[in-house]
Design a protein that fits this description.
alpha/beta, Rossmann fold, 2 domains, two-stranded antiparallel ribbon, 10 helices, 11 strands, 18% strand, disordered N terminus
């Protein structure tokens, strides 16, 4: 599958400037007497003409390869958001990521930064060791709900309780994605999965775990927010949340935690459009979006001082 960016001309989205384009413009004219039947007139790509300007480019912090994710999967988009933040802050050489076990296990193939792979559920423990050895680095984990909220819940809670100065990017799509869609700790009540074919029954499996609300009560949690990426507005808010999470690492005040509600069309048995609508109609009822724990005002003043 080709990534969305690879479908763009020269990896750029471009827009017309406010110019009069009604003028007749000739590109690469060849005198009629020199033309032959096999003559091909090369045409300059439209986005390279003077009347266009670049309004977007793929972040240079991403490796220029196609991704393995399913069509409509949120992982590729969130990868891009994280790397846009790294590029904006100019911290590519100072950033270390920890990849999980799960769909995003190959994150290190796409992010052009130093990366470490962790055993299943142990990303927070691995990140703790990296940050303590290199406290000046920006360290983050990227984990799904199976990796973080199931097998890795102990490491996650203890890491945040200690206030380790790392950022955790938590992708919540309510299922185990890579292993064919089993029920996760975040699966919705009544949600049908390969291990709950009749739907999640509260009496048997309990309620979905609201991880952000759970960890927000821990003293080491400095910043906790939940966002989504199923619309343009949601994507902008998610990017801002990730940007804040990385910035707050400068303060050394504790763990920053960004939960992203992402779609999984393949395991939800939906089209990408249906999956995006499912987030608005169902997922957000259980996992409401917004900031859950914010830094204090005096902490934000300190951030201005350390810039």
């Amino acid at each position: 599958m080709r990534s969305e960016e690879n479908l763009l001309v020269d990896e750029h989205i471009v827009s017309l400037k406010d110019e009069d384009l009604s003028k007749d413009k000739t590109v690469n004219k060849i005198p009629a007497e020199n033309k032959t039947a096999d003559t091909i007139t090369p045409e300059k790509p439209g986005c390279m003409n003077d009347e266009y300007e670049v309004v977007y480019h793929k972040p240079t912090t991403m490796v220029d390869v196609s991704m393995h994710y399913c069509p409509g999967c949120a992982h590729s988009l969130v990868h891009k958001l994280v790397m846009e933040v790294v590029e904006e802050l100019g911290i590519q050489e100072q950033t270390i990521g920890v990849a999980p076990v799960g769909c995003a296990v190959f994150a290190y193939d796409y992010m052009d930064i130093d990366m470490s792979e962790a055993a299943h559920g142990r990303a927070c423990a691995t990140a703790t060791g990296i940050k303590r050895l290199m406290p000046d680095k920006y360290v983050f984990t990227y984990q799904g709900d199976g990796d973080l909220a199931a097998i890795g819940i102990a490491e996650t809670l203890h890491t945040i309780n200690r206030g380790e100065n790392i950022t955790i990017i938590f992708m919540n799509n309510a299922v185990y994605g890579m292993t064919s869609g089993q029920m996760a700790p975040t699966s919705l009540v009544g949600m049908k999965t390969t291990t709950s074919p009749l739907g999640r029954d509260v009496a048997e499996y309990g309620e979905p775990i609201r991880v952000s609300e759970l960890i927000s009560h821990l003293p080491g949690a400095f910043y906790v927010t939940r966002q989504a990426v199923n619309s343009a507005t949601a994507v902008r808010k998610a990017r801002k949340a990730i940007l804040n999470a990385f910035k707050y690492q400068k303060l050394n005040k504790g763990t920053t935690f960004v939960e992203i509600i992402g779609n999984c069309p393949s395991n939800w048995k939906m089209t990408p459009i249906e999956a995006s609508k499912f987030i608005d109609d169902e997922m957000i009822k259980t996992f409401p979006l917004g900031d859950i724990k914010l830094p204090k005002g005096e902490d934000l003043k300190m951030l201005e001082e350390v810039k």
